[in-house]
C-alpha cells in the first residue's frame, strides 16, 4: 500500500486529542528504561504540552539514544543550487513563478566550478537543488550534472521536482544516491491554498514521491514538513507516520527527517503558524525516540546559537556555509541573469561583468530563502568538535579490489 492510500486511514483527530490530554506521568512512562518501541500514539504524547514540561528528560533520552545508534558524529553537507527557474506557483517560496526575481540556470561547467569550490572547503556530500522545470529532465541536464560531479564528489543527493520512477533511474545510474522531497504541508486543505499553479498542486503525487525514488534505486530518502503553514503538531504526526511507512516499505534505504521552518524570501510571505525554538527542541527529541534509526537533518535556516544547542540532542546531518541561490559559492552564471514573472523573461538587463567580485554572500541571482547561520563550514566544524562530536565530511569510499 502506498502512503497516499494509507494516509486517509490515520486517525489524526484522535492522535491530536491524545496529545492535548497527555499527562507528565504518561511522558515519564515512555522515557522509562526498557520501555517498548514507541507507537504513533506514543509520539503524540512526546510532542504534547505535557512533554514540554519534561523537556530536560526528553532531551537527555534523545541524546543517549543518538549516541548509541550513531556514535558522536555529525555528517556535513552543502546544498548546491543549480537553478531558480520554476513552473510552480507556491505562495511561500522565493522561487515561485509569479515572483519577479533574477533567474539563472547554471551551465554544466558552472556547476562543476561550484562543486569544486565546495570540495575545496572539505565537502564530499552535496545536495543538488533546483526549482521544478520539465527541461531539467527532458534534456538530460540533471543526469549530466550528476555524472560530472560524481568523479570527485562521492555522495550526491537531489532535491528537485517529483518525477516518475523511470525518470529517476538514469539519475541513480549516473551516481545520485539520495532524494529529498519536502511535502511542504501534510494538511491537504492548506496545501491546495498554498499551491495555486503548476504540477506541484497534486498532493498525492508528491506524497508518493519517495516510494517512486526507492523503486528507482535511491539508497537515501529524505522527508519533511515545512513548518509555518499548518499546526506543527499535526505536521509532526503526519511526518512521523510517513517516516514509519517508509521504514517498513523502503527498508533498504536510509531515512532522514528534517524540521525546517519558514524563512524570509522573495514575495514576503508571512508564516501562518509558528514553531517556537522550544517546540523545535522538543520535536527533534521526539523524532529521535520514535524513529531511532533515522537521520535528523539541521539546516542553516536556524540561528547559530540554536544549532549549537541542537547538535548534541539528536542531529546526525547538518548543512554549513550554505547559499540558496544558483552560483552562490563562486558567482557562476552571473553574466546570464534575467528577470522573470509567471515563468516568462520580462527584462534581460545589462550582462554583469564575469570577473566582477562577488559582493557579500550573493551571486546576484535571487535565493530561495535567507539563511540564518552564516558561519563558514570550518567554523561550524570547529564548534562541533568543541561540543565533543566529530564532523564527518565523507563517510564512505569506493572499495579497492585486486584480481
- What's the end-to-end separation, in Å? 44 Å
CATH class: Alpha Beta
Domain tally: 1
CATH topology: TIM Barrel
The CATH superfamily appears as Aldolase class I
Percentage of β-strand residues: 15-25%
Tell me briefly what this model is.
With 403 residues, the protein is of the alpha/beta class.
Keywords:
8-stranded parallel β-barrel, 39% helix, globular, 403 residues, 3-stranded antiparallel beta sheet, TIM Barrel, alpha/beta
Describe this protein's structure.
The chain is of the alpha/beta class and about 400 residues long. It has a single domain (about 55-390), classed as Aldolase class I (TIM Barrel, Alpha-Beta Barrel). The protein is about 40% helix and about 15% strand. The protein has 17 helices and 14 strands. It has helices at about 5, 10-20, 25-30, 40-45, 50, 55-70, 110-120, 135-140, 140-150, 165-175, 190-195, 205, 210-215, 230-250, 275-290, 305-315, 375-385, and strands at about 75-85, 90, 100-105, 125-130, 155-160, 175-185, 195, 220-225, 255-260, 295-300, 315-320, 340, 345, 390. Helix 6 packs across helix 15 (about 275-290). It is globular, with a radius of gyration of 21 Å. The N and C termini lie far apart (about 45 Å).
Write the layout of secondary structure elements.
Blueprint: H1 3-6, H2 12-21, H3 24-31, H4 40-46, H5 49-52, H6 55-70, E1 73-83, E2 89-90, E3 101-103, H7 108-120, E4 125-130, H8 135-138, H9 141-149, E5 155-159, H10 165-174, E6 176-184, H11 188-194, E7 195-197, H12 203-207, H13 209-216, E8 220-225, H14 232-249, E9 254-258, H15 277-290, E10 295-298, H16 304-314, E11 317-319, E12 338-341, E13 344-347, H17 377-386, E14 390-392
Parallel strand pairs: 1-4, 1-11, 1-14, 4-5, 5-6, 6-8, 8-9, 9-10, 10-11
Antiparallel strand pairs: 2-7, 3-12, 12-13
Helix pairs in contact: 2-4, 4-15, 6-15, 7-9, 10-13, 15-16
